[in-house]
Design brief:
With 233 residues, the protein is of the alpha+beta class. Among the domains are: 14-63, no CATH class; 78-189, Four Helix Bundle (Hemerythrin (Met), subunit A) (Up-down Bundle). It has 6 helices and 5 strands, in the order βββββαααααα. It has helices spanning 78-90, 95-114, 120-129, 134-150, 164-190, 196-219; strands at 14-16, 23-30, 43-47, 53-57, 60-63. A 5-stranded antiparallel sheet has the order 1-2-3-4-5, with no helix packed on it. Helix 2 packs across helix 3, helix 3 runs antiparallel to helix 4 and helix 4 runs antiparallel to helix 5. The longest helix is centred in the C-terminal third of the chain and has 27 residues, at 164-190. It is elongated and about 85 Å long. It starts with 13 loop residues before the first strand and ends in a 14-residue tail after the last helix. Bound molecules: zinc ion.
Length: 233
């Protein structure tokens, strides 16, 4: 996936191309007609790299229908990818529908991680309690908030003025997948060779260090760093 994803926005000179996925220069041309007044300012936009064209109407990318949304992470569970693809299919027509569907995708991912019978807000709290980094939780919450906003009549976060927010949600869902699925999988594969007895010793060391720190918090005395005798540092 393109690392420096920048959502497409009308009249923007640089963004991530909806066709080739490369961040690059975009050339714009407003469509005109000698005979008929054209409403909603239809425009063509051409990627400088791949030379392919997107069609814009009323400030939205109509073709391709994905609205420039990147493809889903292959590491997402199949049901989550299905929600994501559905959101992508409508992104060029309805940002609100896409935002609501991405919220469903994230909720399905939480069910995959936590099991059912919670609302999304509780799911995210539980993931943090289980050790999820707060930076990653913030990405979950961003998708939750925009999705909630899209499903209510009052636009509380200015989705109409900042349509690129929805495009950014697609990127966020893939970043979440990277943090909670791809990276842990890669880390597990890269450290799978550590022998079980060493894993047991590491776990005991960590427990001991945590207990020591907790005791020092209770007593107000700084923990001393005495390495285990007879072990490599
Ligand atoms: Zn391109």
């Amino acid at each position: 996936m393109e690392e420096d994803y920048s959502p497409p926005r009308e009249d923007e000179e640089y963004f991530t191309c909806p066709h080739c996925g490369i961040f690059g220069e975009q050339q714009w041309e407003e469509l005109t007609s000698g005979e008929f007044p054209l409403e909603n300012h239809p425009k063509l936009c051409r990627c400088w790299r791949c030379k392919r064209i997107s069609l814009w109407f009323g400030g939205m990318m109509i073709i391709p229908a994905t609205g420039g949304a990147p493809p889903p992470s292959p590491d997402l569970p199949e049901s989550v990818r299905a929600d994501y693809d559905e959101a992508r299919a409508v992104a060029g027509r309805s940002r609100r529908a896409a935002a609501a569907l991405l919220r469903v995708a994230v909720e399905n991912l939480c069910i995959h991680l936590n099991g059912p019978q919670r609302n999304l807000d509780e799911h995210i709290g539980l993931l943090v309690a289980k050790g999820l980094a707060e930076e990653t939780a913030e990405m979950f919450d961003a998708v939750r908030l925009v999705g909630n906003n899209a499903a209510h009549p009052i636009d509380r976060i200015g989705l109409d003025e900042r349509p690129e927010i929805v495009q950014t949600l697609f990127w966020l869902v893939n970043e979440i997948a990277r943090d909670v699925i791809t990276r842990p999988k890669q880390r597990a594969a890269a450290t799978a060779w550590i022998p079980p007895e060493e894993r047991a010793r590491i776990a005991a060391r960590n427990r001991k260090a945590i207990e020591k720190l907790e005791r020092s918090r209770d007593t107000g005395v700084e923990p001393t760093d005495v390495p285990d005798q007879g072990k490599d540092a």
